[in-house]
Amino acid sequence: MKIQKAAVIGAGVMGAAIAAQLANAGIPVLLLDIVLPDQQDRNFLAKGGIQRALKARPAAFMDPARAALITPGNLEDDLKKLKDADWIVEAIIEKLDAKRDLWARVETVAKKTAIISSNSSGIPMHLQIQGRGEDFRRRFVGAHFFNPPRYLHLLEVIPTPSTDPEIVKTFSEFAQTTLGKGVVVANDVPGFVANRIGVYGIVRAMQHMDRAGLTPAQVDQLTGPVLGRANSATFRTADLSGLDIIYHVANDLGRATPDDEDFTLTPAFRTLVEEKKMLGDKTGSGFYKKTKGADGKTKILNLNLETFEYEDQGKVKVAAVDAVKGRPLAERVKALYAAEGPEGDFLRGVMNDGFWYAAKMAGNVSDRLQDIDNALKWGFGWEQGPFETMDTLGVQGVIRNLEAEGRTLPPLLAAMKDSGRDAFYHGGETVTPAGEPTPYHAPYFILADLKKDATTVVKKRAGASVLDLGDGVLLVEWHAKMNALGEDQLRAVQDAHKLVQDLGYAGLVLGNQGENFSAGANLPLILAQAQAEEWDELDDMIKQFQQVTTSLRFSPHPTVAAPFGLTLGGGAEFTLHADHVVASAELYMGLVEVGVGLIPGGGGTKEMLLRFTDQQQPGQQLGAALLPAVQRAFELIGTAKVSTSALEARNLGFLRDTDTVAMNKNHVLQDAKRQVLALAPGYVQPTPRQDIPVMGDAAIAAIKSALYGMHQGGYVTDYDLVVSEQLARVLSGGTGNNRTAKVSEQHLLDLEREAFLTLLGKKGTQQRIDHMLKTGKPLRN
């Protein structure tokens, strides 16, 4: 069973976004919806869904060209086309009768091998397929995406008692590998996993807020990043989701669950939905409201739940949050759980509710604890799931607190109390919902978390390590803040090269499991050295940086980079020099040095010129015919263009056609390891190029002419001109050449280093770096 073609029924927000994610993965999609009687275009709704997906922000498509893979249609004229689909998923209105009617029609046309799915967030799957034939029911499995499907990792796969286990296995593998989703197998119960526990947490947080006398803004400070949860925290998440959605889900869950599972909404929340019709972002106001200030800047107003008026409360300060800022997550969680006063009472109430309910749901919503943890992490943006958080605090201590509150322990926690075990995960083991030890099965090839797939640390530095991935492959793993590049990171790459040669490894992978691959160079160090006028030291540092980045290409063994997330500046330069790249589909890659008044100095400028001139036809690599390649490199670097996906990174030239894109970020390391092993047999060490064509003064003149016009038009600042002229000089191969010449890679690297140091010595660059460090924003001086 291979899924090579798909169909989505329902072109609303969710259906169109699911179709877009399928197109992102390269799967042709048929998108169907009803025919509107007052519209001449019978495919009006499906076409509208595609257009909304193209305009969506954040973008639903990784590359707008992928929209061509979606074919619009309608359920009257095109139902028969479903016979070609290997997977059919519906995303229509949340009404049981409508879904049953649709499945009756689909059963008559779908091929006998097609997998059939519903994206319903609440209607039980087994109820939808009552009356369908045995073969249809065997191939039916719930597929609940979270919105937006491109960015939220979670996909709940929900079998019914009739679903063939092979269908679950096949579909789950497709969802993980091809669609890039994090699959949690959920039981067919109300709310499934993430919404059942997540909405319970939101409702209970509202109740505890009232008791503690806190405001929504204070609660969002307490339940956001400080607790290892999403920036949107509790009430901003509610606004984003739609208060009406939470209202209906909470009411439905309240009717469908036992009395001790309290989904009672607060009076204020009911007033917002039932009377005020303030439903969050979809109506422009909810717990928060955006408005324009007198200065034209957007301001966020906070809702006063007593008056239902919006107030400008400025930056809300919360003492418990301020007290733990800058500390590691484990320390923050422990301190917040023990905090005093109303803030501490609120947090303990919310956290204990979450712990109790997650334990109660073990074996109910899912049969594995890790699935519950992953559902909350992947669906709601938590860093730790509830069981992982209890491990941080110590399970026995949590149990004592729950008993002190007079709670009856769920069977899982009662079993943990009896066993004396203080962690759900330990030494490659976890426990069953009954509290019995069981092996932990990692969902992916994950290294950093020792309760999952452990690896051997071969050499460790404070900011980087070299690890043994097995099968003769080493991993260079950076683990500094934002993976900024300094001495530890460079030395670790050198360590790995030496270990490969000395110990006979096959090759190495450059990757890590932080939030981002690398945000670039260590700017505070560079600025401090420039202000101290340590020019010899800086020159040596840049030489070393160039030697290490280019060593990824010019070593006797294969190297594979595995970038993801932010891959900026020096992080991009390392990636550009690897023999092969396995990139996460969500790759935000760019050479952004001009934003701090510099140019790429680690071979990035050289590499983009080389790549673009190589793309010219051999007969065009002369004279003025080279100018488009030079201009393309200049524009890419000079505008600090950052890709919005790996697909765009390929279009921009950061990735080659031969490089690999992995839809699932958690697969990049294992895929990179495979690539090293594929390259290793018969690998021949490359040699630096000596034949890169350059234009000399002619290129500089052309670029300066264009810059003059942009400066006159106000598009570039005075200091932009200074930086741009240094960039033009490198891309031209240097001044003094009045005709096309050929230069070496080292010649271009030397020009890069010279330009980098020249700019670093200027006041304008130092001002830009200082401003970036203080504000996080570029200075236009």
UniProtKB/TrEMBL annotation:
Statement: the UniProt record of this protein carries the keyword Endoplasmic reticulum: no
Annotated keywords: NAD, Oxidoreductase
KW NAD (keyword) present: yes
CDD domains: crotonase-like (cd06558)
Domain Enoyl-CoA hydratase/isomerase: 479-605
Source species taxonomy: Bacteria, Thermotogati, Deinococcota, Deinococci, Deinococcales
Enzyme's top EC category: oxidoreductase
Reaction(s) the record says it catalyses: a (3S)-3-hydroxyacyl-CoA + NAD(+) = a 3-oxoacyl-CoA + NADH + H(+)
Domain 3-hydroxyacyl-CoA dehydrogenase C-terminal positions: 191-289
Superkingdom in the source lineage: Bacteria
UniProt GO molecular function: (3S)-3-hydroxyacyl-CoA dehydrogenase (NAD+) activity; NAD+ binding
Name listed for the protein in its UniProt record: 3-hydroxyacyl-CoA dehydrogenase
GO biological process: fatty acid beta-oxidation
Transmembrane intervals: none
